[in-house]
Amino acid sequence: MDIDRLIDEVIAREGGYCNHPADKGGPTRWGITQAVARAHGYTGDMSCLPRDLAARIFRRIYWDEPRFADVAAISPAVAAELFDTGVNMGPGTAVGFLQRALNALNRQQSDYPDIVVDRRIGLATLRAFAAFMRVRGEKGETVLLKAMEALQGARYVALAEERPANEAFLYGWLANRIGQSSADA
Fold it and tell me: Rounded CA gap, 35 and 183, in Å?
C-alpha cells in the first residue's frame, strides 16, 4: 500500500487554492480547509499552505489516526476507498460506511457477528472485515466497495437536498469521488 501515492492523487484531485462562496469549509488549499490547517499549527495565508504540510496532515488525520493501514493489511483497495472518502467526508463517516456494509453483507450473522457502527476501526471491525474477505474473497471485495460507494453517493445527494447551496458541488462529488478511488492500490 503506497499511502504517498494516495496522498498525491488526492492533492491532484483537490487542486490548489479555492475559496468558493458556497463551501462551508471556507478557504481551502490542496483539499485542506482553513480550520484543519489551523488545528495543525498553520497560521499563514491559506493560498500559501505548503504542499508538504498538506501531505503530512493527510497522512496523520486521514490515514494514521483512523488506522487505515490496519485495513490495508487486509485489503489495499478498501483502505484506499476509506482514505479517499475520509478526506472528503471525514474518516468516521467513511468507517461508518464500511461497518454498515459489513453488517448488511454478513448473511444475517452467519458469516460473522454484526458489529457496532461506532465509526472507528477497532478489533471488532477488523475481525468482521477479515472474516468477510475470507468468506467472500475478491468478488466480495468488489461488492463491498460498491456498497460503500452507494452509501457515499446517497450521502452526497442528501447533503444537496438538505442544503441547496451544496448543489454547486454535487455533480463534481459524484463525478470525482464515486468509482474514482485507487482500487488497484
Answer: 30
pLDDT in tens, the chain (185 residues): 799 999 999 999 888 898 988 788 889 999 999 999 999 999 999 999 999 999 999 999 999 999 999 999 999 999 999 999 999 899 999 999 999 999 999 999 999 999 999 999 999 999 999 999 999 999 999 999 999 999 999 999 999 999 998 888 889 888 888 876 544 44
Regarding pTM above 0.85, the answer is yes
**Got the DSSP string for 43-65?**
-S-GGG--HHHHHHHHHIIIIIT
Complete DSSP assignment for the chain: --HHHHHHHHHHHH-SEE--TT-TT-SEETTEEHHHHHHTT--S-GGG--HHHHHHHHHIIIIITTTHHHHHTT-HHHHHHHHHHHHHH-HHHHHHHHHHHHHHTSTTTTSS------SS--HHHHHHHHHHHHHHHHHHHHHHHHHHHHHHHHHHHHHHHH-GGGHHHHHHHHHHHTT-S-TT-
Identify the burial level of 10 via C-beta atoms within 10 angstroms of its C-beta, where 0-12 means exposed, 13-18 middle and 19 or more buried: buried
